[in-house]
Amino acid sequence: MSSYQTIYRDQLVQEIDETPDEYLPILLNLIRLFRKSITLKPAEETFRQGWQEAMTDETLPIEELWVDIDAE
To answer: Does residue 71 register a pLDDT over 80?
Structure first.
């Protein structure tokens, strides 16, 4: 484990240790929700969702997809 990981792991453990016991279940749920939100979905599931959106006309015009993207 790199020192970078160790520093953040130690800080997380310290924060958890300082959290009152009655809030630990909420903190656990928050951490699990965060982890799930940043984990990539399987390709099949992503394709299925995209296909469903395309079939139900839940799409955006291509011009709107480039709004606020700084591509030069």
So the answer is: no
